Amino acid sequence: MCKRDVVIKLICLFILGACGAPPSDATPTPTLINLMLITPTSPPPTPYMAVNARLLANAEQAEAPAIAWVDDALLVTWIGTDDLDVRHFGQWRFGDEWQPPQVLSLLTNRPYQQNLVVTSDKIIYLMWLDALPNFPEPQRVWYAPISENYTINPGALSLTTQEAWDYTAIGASNGGIWVVWQGGLRSEPTLYSQFIDSLGRPRFSNPIIENAHQPTLIADVKGLKWLFWLSDNQLWRGRFGDDGTLTDNLALTDSVMLGRGEFIEDFRVGIAGDAAFAFWQVNRRDGQIISYWAYGGLDGMNWTSPQPHNTTWFIPNQLSSTTMTAIGVAQSETYDLRIYQWLGSYWWAESTGVRIPSQLLRPPTWLYRGTDDLILGWAQPRGEFADLWLWMGE
């Protein structure tokens, strides 16, 4: 099978939401890696320099695992299959001890775009997109709380009743979750805000912005919430209130210009202090991913125009901080996942990072709380599958 066919199969499998199963303990363990549940017929290549890397699973997916911290506990989730169906999987780590991974008892059909949201009550909710198998059921935003013993009560709940194409979510100060989701026509999308209360009950949705897409809801270090979105080829931001309404909407800078056949594969925003950083991943007509970034003040001042970066899948830290860090796949003779730090006027990075055998098909997951408290997750393509890796620094 040629490389192009392999890539096409992986992309198709990702779109369909088909995923691989976590493997069995019988597989030989590569050196320097503490492995659990691996099914491939031969051990995957160990990422160079990834002394603390951990292989979660071998899966038919391109998405990186979802990751969340609660104090010193860590939850990782991914999508896989067992002998019967497509499943959500989860694995906790308490202190330095990893618990056995579990199949999560959740209704699934073709789930994708997992996200973990931590509430102020320190409850982790798993959120994802899925459509029930009964045509013409719409694709909806789903959510479920994941306990420390993997108990899920009351189970998978549907947040939306109409077609949802994208979503973003953040924990609220009262134990609930605010969600902004994109619905309506794909050509004329509308953003809706919707609240999940501290008991896990969904409230009514409220349309807040028309003709908008790529929403990102994020809090700054002071706890203030901001919504970023793209509309009319511009990047916008607004203050997101405790009642789910937007105020002080500002157009910050131009978005990336797209040619015929090109589209935005991924869009994210990170916050460091009083500055915000926007990151675009643009899929060009030839299938090449080009990363762009821009930054400016949360007050809307001094925003730069989007400019390309010399890595692919260049994305920010998911956690707000006083310092901006980002991760990107450096394209040298060998690919490597490299950590970048913003130094006020330029991005600084070590000369090498976590070396990987090939390019990624989707962005990694990056959480940074400090030099000794970080975690990186990614899906490494290998044949018709992908190895799901975690790296927690050296």
What's the β-strand tally? 30
Estimate percent helicity: under 10%
Pairing-aware structural class of the strands and helices? mainly beta
End-to-end CA span? 36 Å
Strand fraction equals: over 45%
The residue ranges in which pLDDT falls below 50 over 5 or more consecutive positions are 1-42
Tell me the overall shape: globular
Distinct helical segment count: 1
Rounded to an integer, what's the Rg over CA atoms?
A: 20 Å
**What does the average pLDDT come to?**
87
Most strands sheet: 5 strands, antiparallel
How would you describe this structure to a colleague?
By secondary structure, the protein is mostly beta strands. Helices cover 4% and strands 51% of the residues. The protein has one helix spanning 3-16, and strands at residues 53-59, 66-70, 73-81, 86-94, 97-98, 102-104, 112-118, 124-131, 139-146, 157-158, 164-171, 177-184, 189-196, 206-210, 213-219, 225-231, 234-240, 246-254, 263-272, 275-283, 289-297, 307-308, 311-316, 325-331, 335-342, 347-349, 354-356, 365-370, 373-382, 385-391. Strands 2, 3, 4, 5 and 6 form a five-stranded antiparallel sheet that branches. Strands 23, 24, 25, 26 and 27 form a five-stranded antiparallel sheet that branches. Strands 1-30-29-28 form a four-stranded antiparallel sheet, with no helix packed on it. It is globular.
Quickly describe the structure.
With 394 residues, this protein is mainly beta. 4% of the residues lie in helices and 51% in strands.
